[in-house]
Design brief:
Blueprint lengths: L12 E4 L9 H14 L6 H5 L6 H10 L6 H18 L7 H11 L3 E4 L4 H8 L8 E3 L12 H10 L6 E5 L2 H10 L2 E5 L11 E4 L7 H8 L5 E2 L5
Parallel strand pairs: 1-2, 1-4, 2-3, 4-5, 5-6, 6-7
């Protein structure tokens, strides 16, 4: 019997985005934005809301302020966070396959970090439902430069004591994907409310239900994978 080839290594760590990637909270954010705009006598379309996906909260709040919300940017951020936090307290809408992959990584001893532009209060509310799954949380109120800057992912890798090039980052938004790629991490874009457009070095999937440890091993080995349906 010929010798079997050794398996490619697992990632040194997996760096997870939260909104739209780990949990399907983007509809919560959109609802909160639309409610706030309506309270100030303004409309806010779904298309306008999609322009905010993945942005630092201060950037999104600034855009809402410019569109007619008569509140200071910090107050807008606080309002959105509180409204989404209330919705998460009622129900955490996990993305398909997310908890299965988290569990597999935990069983394999691969550390995970959460890298989100949401603030710590919301990230902690979500991760409380998966105790021990994340070794560190990098949140929007902990960084000087949010996504699409690479700083959040660089901080996560530094905290874990690993090189970003040995990590897999999982993202859904254009800003988040730009951040992860710029950090040097092997990056997987998983479609949520926005399509994931092809980019150099970017692996893509329609759902985390299509992603397992074998997929992550292949990415670490240098493969760029396209797991989107062939009809795309």
């Amino acid at each position: 019997m010929p010798p079997t080839s050794p398996l490619p290594p697992l990632p040194a760590a997996v760096l997870w985005d939260m909104d739209g990637t780990l949990v399907d909270t983007e509809p919560y954010w959109i609802r909160a934005e639309q409610e706030l705009m309506a309270a100030h006598g303004r409309s806010w379309s779904h298309e306008q809301a999609l322009e905010l996906v993945g942005n630092p909260l201060t950037v999104s709040a600034g855009m809402l302020h410019d569109a007619g919300v008569d509140l200071p940017v910090p107050a807008i951020v606080d309002h959105l966070l509180a409204r989404v936090h209330d919705q998460v307290a009622t129900s955490v809408p996990w993305r398909p396959g997310a908890r299965t992959l988290l569990a597999a990584l935990g069983d394999a001893g691969v550390p995970c970090a959460l890298v989100t532009m949401s603030y710590a209060t919301l990230a902690e509310a979500v991760t409380a439902h998966v105790p021990g799954a994340f070794a560190t949380l990098v949140t929007g109120d902990q960084v000087e430069r949010g996504k699409p800057d690479p700083q959040p992912y660089l901080i996560a890798a530094e905290r874990l004591g690993v090189a970003t090039a040995d990590c897999v980052a999982i993202e859904d938004s254009p800003a988040g994907i730009t951040s992860a790629l710029a950090s040097g991490a092997r990056t997987l874009g998983v479609e949520a409310v926005l399509p994931v457009e092809a980019r150099d070095g970017l692996s893509r999937a329609a759902s985390l239900a299509d992603v397992d440890l074998g997929v992550l091993r292949r990415m670490v080995a240098g493969d760029v994978l396209d797991l989107l349906p062939a009809s795309r």
